[in-house]
Structure formats: C-alpha cells, structure tokens
Design brief:
The structure is a single chain. By secondary structure, the protein is an alpha/beta fold. It has 2 domains: about 160 residues, Transcription Regulator spoIIAA; about 120 residues, no CATH class. Helix 2 links the parallel strand 1 and strand 2. Helix 13 packs parallel to helix 14.
Amino acid sequence: MLSYQCSNSCRHCIYASSPRWKDWMLEQDLIRYLDQIRKYAPNQRGIHLSGGEPFLNFEATLRAVELCIESGVPLQYVETNGYWCETNDLTAYQFNLLRESGLPAILISVSPFHNEFIPFERTNRAINIAREIYGPYNVLIYTSYFYQQLQDYNPQTKIPFNRYLNTIGLEKAAHSFVEHYGLVPCGRAVSKLSHLFQKKPAETFFNNNCLAEFTSPEHIHIDPYGNYIASFCAGISLGDAHRLEKIFKGNPFQERPILEILATSGVEGLLKLAEDQFDFQVSSEGYIAKCHLCQDIRSHIVRVTDQFEELKPIEFYSYL
C-alpha cells in the first residue's frame, strides 16, 4: 500500500482512504520490505501495488514498479480508479511508461462507489486504453458486473450515490454489493452503508475469534508507515513490517494485548475489556457483522487512550 491518499472518499473503503492523507511509502522502506519478502516469504505468489490511489503520485508508483521488478519479487498489478484518465494521450502515456518498466497488468476499480467521484467516461477510457497496451487478459476490472451496469448512465457525469440507490432499489443494491463486489463490513462501509443491511445484537458475534484472519497468508497489506495489516483488518497492526521475521517466525500477539484478545476470545473479549476499562457501550441499533462491532469498539478505545500500539495508523479512526 503505497499511500492511504486517494482522489475519493468512497463509502465502501476498507482503509478510509481520502485526499486528507498525505504520506507515501519511502523508497528505502519499499526496498527493505521487498528484501524481506524475498527472504522470509519465498513461496508467495506475488504482490500488488495499491493505495489509496497510486496515480496521485505517478513518479513514486513508477519507481515502485521498477524496484519490484529489480528485486525479483513477482509483481502482479497496480490498482487505479482511473480518476486521472482525462485524455487519451495522458492515459496511454502513463500506462505505456509502466508497461515499459515491466508492469504485467493493471487493475481498474469500477463501482457505484467510485462513480460518485469519477465520471464513467474516465473509467471507460482507462479500460479501453489499458486493453490496447496490456492486452485484454491483463486488464483486471473490479468488477465487470458494475462496469456493465454503469454503462446505462450518463458517462460524462458523476452519479450521486443516493440517486443510484433510488434507481436500483435498496434491496437489490445491498445484494449486489455483497455478491458482485465482495463488500467487506469494516472501514468506512460500516458508517456509510450499514443502513442497507440487517443489524443484530452484539452477542450474535461472540461465537468465534479472529485467529484465522490474523494468520491467513492469503491477503496482507504493508502500509506506508510500516504496519503489517492482515486480511482486511484495517486499523490493526500486527507489527512493524521493517522486521518481518519477528512477525513470520515470532509471536505477533506478544505485548499487543488487543491482538491477543481478538485471537483468543474474539470480539466478546474485546467488548469486555472496553466495557470494564474504557466505559464502552454497545450500540442499541446493533451491528451488521463482527468486524463492525470490533471497529466500533476500537474506535472508542483510541478516543480514550493511546496505550495500544496495535491500533494503527491512528488517522484511520479519524478519517472514517
């Protein structure tokens, strides 16, 4: 994750990305992470470069691609929302530079969440020109369902999200966000989209812990501050990615009490801690998922104390 900075403040965003973020991953840090990935995770299938929006700092993104290629760590793709694709020439120029640097593929985000900020004509331009440069099989559209659906709207305008909901219908929209986008119930989604889903009492989510999410090797992010973020657990740092060996071969839960609680007793244990020590009260409206409850508790805790170094980056909780 090169930066949390983004051109948009999308309602669904797991990482609470927005223009308010300013920091970008330093070149020397990326070099260190790539060295450690090659050393401690030699069998990983590949990495991708994401944000935020990587094209907000194209020079940094281009350099990151070059460093990945030089390192020998398999680079799969760079993500973009296409906000910057204002002209054919600019779009082709930047995609060509990345291709010539060794980038094998591009992922372009397409959804009603993005369309609220980006006219569809820019998204469409990004996809069409990327296909010319990378080939049709090396342009990943996330998601094709919404790419087809949004072609029915005026391509030159941004579509207000509430207008989209009124056109599609709340029930159909909620279903499509889960089935066709894989909406994750955390980040900004739980405050901006929870009204679309059924809420349940907190105790509904007491049945399992978060060990599987913390230990899964399938999807992790390293953010520009060096936080190692497992699964989609934004706002929770398993440790300092400058020392991946300690995370991979040690005990990342040691001296990180919230991690240990979530890994052993789940949100039930975290709720008990928050109620006993930080005067937390559960929402009378309920929650749409255990991640929603977990984030609500963590957001309260960071407002009360800064004693938990695993609750990082702290800005995440301010920019939701």
